[in-house]
Write a structure and sequence with these properties.
By secondary structure, the chain is of the alpha+beta class. The protein is built from five helices and eight strands. The chain has helices spanning about 5-20, 20-25, 30-40, 50-55, 150-175, and strands at about 60, 70, 80-90, 95-100, 105-115, 125-130, 135, 140-150. It has a six-stranded antiparallel β-barrel with strand order 2-3-4-5-6-8. The radius of gyration is 19 Å and the shape is globular.
């Protein structure tokens, strides 16, 4: 490989590393639009209403799966509920999620956040969520409905949207870098 080709590849890699993700491009995210974008699940309205909307459109259950959306019930200060997309299943009682607009981070996206099943029946009906200000999962369990499964079509659609955004962002960076 010539030095010029290596330099070009290195420059493109550096430019792509500096490109903000589509999630970072927006200054404020609510959890539901972010979960819809990130998971590909096409449900709308308040997060707590997603469970009822999913009936007949998506499979639902009590077992976390990669790409599924955990739906929190609307309670107390969380009057619209909350949704978070599963990014990793660590064990039968611990998962990682990516979500927006949680707790001490209004409008911000948080990646790979630890969520622990705190339900007495081990059925994910109550969870505790990592809370950065205390450096641990919160002390308060939140009630949930369960998981909405994205399915292969929704995951492929979400991956395609992410790939398109990355390609468009990279093109903009390269265009700006041209003299």
């Amino acid at each position: 490989m010539t030095g010029r080709v290596k330099l070009a590849i290195g420059s493109i890699a550096l430019a792509l590393a500096a490109v903000p993700s589509a999630a970072d491009a927006q200054s404020y995210w609510s959890c539901a639009p972010f979960a819809r974008f990130f998971s590909g699940i096409q449900l709308f309205g308040a997060a707590g209403g997603w469970w009822a909307q999913a009936m007949g459109k998506y499979a639902e259950g009590a077992v976390p799966r990669l790409g599924s959306v955990l739906v929190f019930k609307a309670v107390g200060a969380m009057r619209s509920g909350h949704v978070a997309t599963v990014t990793k299943v660590v064990s039968d009682r611990i998962i990682k999620v990516t979500h927006a607009n949680w707790g001490g981070s209004p409008g911000r996206v948080e990646n790979d956040v630890t969520v622990v099943d705190a339900s007495p029946a081990n059925d994910w009906s109550q969870v505790k969520v990592w809370y950065s200000p205390i450096g641990d999962v919160g002390t308060h369990p939140y009630p949930t409905y369960g998981f909405i499964y994205a399915g292969a079509t929704a995951l492929a659609r979400g991956a395609q949207v992410a790939a398109d955004d990355l390609r468009d962002d990279a093109k903009r960076v390269i265009d700006r870098a041209r003299p």
